[in-house]
Amino acid sequence: MTYPPEQLRKHYYLLNLIRRFEETLDALFGSGLIGGTSHLCIGQEACAVGAIAALQADDMVTSNHRGHGHFLAKGGDPGRIMAELFGKATGYSGGRGGSQHMAAFALGFLGSNGITGGMIPIATGAALTQRITGSGRVVLCFFGDGASGQGAFHEALNMGTTWRLPIVYFCENNHYAMSTPLRESFLQPSVAARVAGYGLQTMQADGNDYFSVRRVTQEAVSAARDGHGPVLVEAMTYRMCGHSKSDKCEYRTDEEERQWAGRDPLEAMARRLLADGIAPEAELQALAQQAVADIEAAVEYARQSPDPDPETVQDNLFATF
Length: 321
Hints:
Layout: H1 5-30, H2 45-52, E1 60-62, H3 68-73, H4 78-85, H5 119-133, E2 139-144, H6 151-162, E3 167-173, E4 176-177, E5 180-181, H7 182-185, H8 191-194, E6 201-206, H9 210-225, E7 231-236, H10 254-261, H11 265-275, H12 281-304
Parallel strand pairs: 1-2, 2-3, 3-7, 6-7
Antiparallel strand pairs: 4-5
């Protein structure tokens, strides 16, 4: 399967943009310029960019606690996302949602959630809406392997398959639920194998390979859009960082980390673009440098943005006291 060269170059830039965003965010937390916590997706960039590349512009995405990459890949403005993390009024949630509670409905990004598996039922409900209204849209629902142990995950998949909803459940299997290896939690470590009993089609992809993720997700999205019901895609990947900013990854071996570092998704895509003659080395370097500059601009935008007005503290609440 071939893709337009200009699109591939843009997506290589997006991989770099997400990586630089997360690395910068890690440094900002470490220096104390941003408080709280955050969950980074370093190493999982190909899942976000490759999967969302398989969607139409008006399709919808739901995310999880590790969601900055998904948001950027769906078209989120890095400046506004950074401003939200700084707690500024120009952020997507007005500075009051933070890392795990941002949404942009106009982009089809229905939001992230701090509850493990919390967006899976919401994505299923959104897919039900698409089926009832006949919109032709598909919902892409991101979650991690740890979420497959949640009851809501199984309830949602059962409902999705029973009602044949236009949804792709996309599992980023990074092999760890916080610090617990998946092999210690389940006798059957494959999420795809465990859910086959619900009657939905399952597929697996190399989550560190943009081209594998995009190809598999395109097939899944087409099936869901054509009325064949949900598809679960399990993308095998690895987070090249801790679960959160305070996690030193002492539960992983140096050898394991070295092996996965050799499968860095940014380097893998660069090699492919070079081999296929899509872009010379100089252009790839320029795209990577542009990502660095754009994230520096995003940080400056966030720094210069105003704090939320205290008078708006009760705006957009479902209930007040």
